[in-house]
Amino acid sequence: MSTKIEKLLQPAAPLFELWEHAKENGTYFYNQPIQEFLKDGKVRVNGKEMGMYASYSYLGLLDHPRINAAARRAIEEYGTGTHGVRFLAGTLPIHDELEQTIADFKHTETAITYSSGYVTNLTVISSLLGRRDYVFSDKLNHASIVDGCQMSGAEFKRFQHRDMEHLERRLENTPADANKLVVVDAVFSMDGDIIDLPRLAELCEEYDAILMIDEAHSLGVLGETGRGIEEYFGLDGVADLNMGTLSKTIPSVGGYVAGKQKLIDFLRIISRAYIFSAALPPAQAAAANEAFKVILDEPERIEKLTANTEQFISGLQACGFDTLDTETAIVPVICSSIEKALLMTKYAHENGVFVLPVISPAVPPGLERLRATVTAAHEPDEIARAIEVLHAGGKKTGIL
Ligand SMILES: *Cc1c(COP(=O)(O)O)cnc(C)c1O
Questions:
Q1: pTM surpassing 0.90?
Q2: Which atom of ligand 1 is nearest to the CA of 121?
């Protein structure tokens, strides 16, 4: 390698070393191809059949026949790409239809879509805010929110995780006439816990702050019909901006933000990811559009996810695992060290349970974990088996 590249990559040297070490030990678990989707939430990885406990497809919609068919029809009609960006020649009828579907599903006036959830947070936050404005962000918010806040140039105020008193002190200490945006995950992507929306909404009202919620892990997961956190708390319409992804419960790719007509109109003429980046491919837009309809047509999936989540969390807790404050399909299984998290993952894979570890610096040292997820595709006996495997692994590795 040339020395200029070596010099540039120097800060990453410890990370390269860690991964090399892990590969030698057989504890490198990342970037592994999922070779085949099997029935009942199972997959084939490394030639081995395993229960899939690392999926974001919370309602088991990935590979759904109706959604696949919609994608195929869109390819037949329009091909695989578009004529450019949405703002110019990239818009197809399916894009407008998808945005209408999202707005209807979320009970908002309208919606706008982008090419990923990551890009949505980046472009929406940085379009809305500028230098003299203030943004308030939960300490455990997703990286895309953090990046969007930083990119905006606004005063970036973090508050302690789910600590509404801390947020209030932050808001109190802000000039009353400043533009303020409070942005939070509805369900936190590492811990699975839920933001206190009732109190948050009161604070935003009281301090005249705009409220933006990231529903990446709550769409299809929270609320009786899967509409998300506002439905869960019976607080329709309290968020000004409902952001979400089309790549988790919705088995496609893309991101959206739903809300008031004026705000969305503004984003359509201002946000750089809309104006300078290609439109969603027709197949992905059509798949996403169909997926929202499937959620409404097959409400039993939400019931099943809720039951599976309860079984999984209570089963792991009964074994003695610390699962933090999760109440959702994201279930952290705390292992307390990098070594234990990696050994635990290895044991799980050897015994047919596909989970993945999350280690520091992605989570604080001491909170290294398996980040397990449960979906509507799992059957109760399969979940019981996964709990048994993790129980045995926990004992073997000294976590329990
Ligand atoms: C996954 C995720 C995103 C990004 O979504 P993509 O569509 O995968 O880019 C944004 N916010 C949260 C909370 C997420 O978990």
A1: yes
A2: 10
